[in-house]
Amino acid sequence: MIEEIKKYDKNFNEDLFLSNTDHIFIMILDAIMDKNITNVKHYITENVFTSLNNLVTTYINNNKTRLFDEMNIKSTKIINYNIDNNMINIEVLLTSRYMDYFIDENGKYIEGINDHRIEKNYHIILSKNINAEKLKEARTCQNCGATLDINASGICPFCKKIIDLKNKEYIISKIDTI
Prior knowledge:
Mean pLDDT: 87
Helix content: 10-25%
Number of strands: 4
C-alpha cells in the first residue's frame, strides 16, 4: 500500500506521516483541554474544526473542563487510502490511552474516568492535495513572510493569521468523535 501512495506522493515517508499523525492527535487533545481549538486549526479541515469547536463550546457553556491525563499513543497504522478529487486520503487507525474526565471551574471532579487509563481506537482520515507544494524546512507565513513554529499554535505571531497547510501537508479531514 505504501508504494501505491508513493505513486501519488513521491515524498511520502510512512514513519514521518505516522509520527505527525500522533503529534496532531495529541495537540487536538491539548486544544480541547485548553478550550482553544484555534491552536490546531491549521492541522484540520473546516468541518473538523467546527465539530471540535462545538464540543468545546458545549463544555464551556456547562462550566466544565475536559481533561486527558497520562495520554499516550499505543499504536498508529495506515489501514487504507484512496484518491478522490485530486486528494490523497489516508485512513489510519490510532489507538490511544488516557484518563478522560471532567472538572468544574473550581477543579472539582464531576464525572469520567480519573483513576486508570482507558484505551480507545480512532479512525482518522488525513488528506493532501496531489499537487501540494513541498513543505519547506524553514516555514514562513504565506501572508507576511515571518518565520514560524507551526507546532506552537499555527497562528502567525506577527500578522495573526492562521497558517494554511491544506495545499502543503496532510491535514485531518475526518476523525471519530473524541
